[in-house]
Amino acid sequence: MVVAALPANLCDSVQAPPTAGPAVGVLALQGGYHEHAVMLSRLGCRVSEVPHLEGLDGLVIPGGESTTMGHLAERLALLEPLRAFVASGRPVLGTCAGLIFLADEVVGQKQGGQKLVGGMDLTVDSFETTLEAADVAPARRVPAVFIRAPAILRTG
After folding, report:
1. According to the model, what pLDDT value does residue 12 have?
2. Would 124 disulfide with which of 9, 20, 41, 103, CB 3.0-4.6 Å?
3. How far apart are CA 75 and CA 44, in angstroms?
4. 2-121 topology per CATH
5. How confident is the model at residue 17 (pLDDT cuts 50, 70, 90)?
6. For the chain, what are the domain ranges?
7. Which of 150-154's residues contact partners 24+ apart within 8 Å by CB, and which partners?
8. Is 0.85 surpassed by the pTM of this model?
9. Which reaction does it catalyse (predicted)?
């Protein structure tokens, strides 16, 4: 399912017909699609549900959990339509897991593992850092891996 955001007007001072602006979809597989749709609505977009990607001028793929997003997209037969949409050159924004889902390469991914849309010439990796966690390990630094918070290692 795609939630489409259709701008009701092009700017605050010019009233335009509801279909005059670009149609931007928000992929509603899981994660933060509602928040993205709300923000697009606050920006003057008319938000409605559409069953497919046809007719959209752009697409937002919000966060969630990228492996689950891949499984759902495959089960719902959306992987190839999403890949075709990205390959068409229309604007696509991926946030958090959506960025992972759009990356051409994910470091540390098991061979034949996670299903990706790809199409963005990026290499991403999980964000890692060392934390001080006094309650857990007094006087020690603890390595922490945030598996779904992407770090962009390379852009093409």
Report:
1. 40
2. 103
3. 33
4. Rossmann fold (3.40.50)
5. very low
6. 2-121
7. 150/96, 150/97, 150/99, 150/100, 150/103, 150/124, 150/125, 150/126, 151/124, 151/125, 151/126, 151/127, 152/99, 152/122, 152/123, 152/124, 153/107, 153/123, 153/124, 153/125, 154/105, 154/122, 154/123
8. no
9. L-glutamine + H2O = L-glutamate + NH4(+)
Provide the token pair at 5: 């955001």
Residue 54 has pLDDT above 80, yes or no: yes
Collapsing DSSP to helix, strand or coil, 66 comes out as helix
**Can you read off the two tokens belonging to residue 131?**
């934390």
CB contact at 8 A, 120 and 85: no
Distance, in Å, from the CA atom of 67 to the CA atom of 150, rounded to the nearest integer, reads 13
Crossing angle between the packed helical segments 79-87 and 66-75, to the nearest 10 degrees: 110
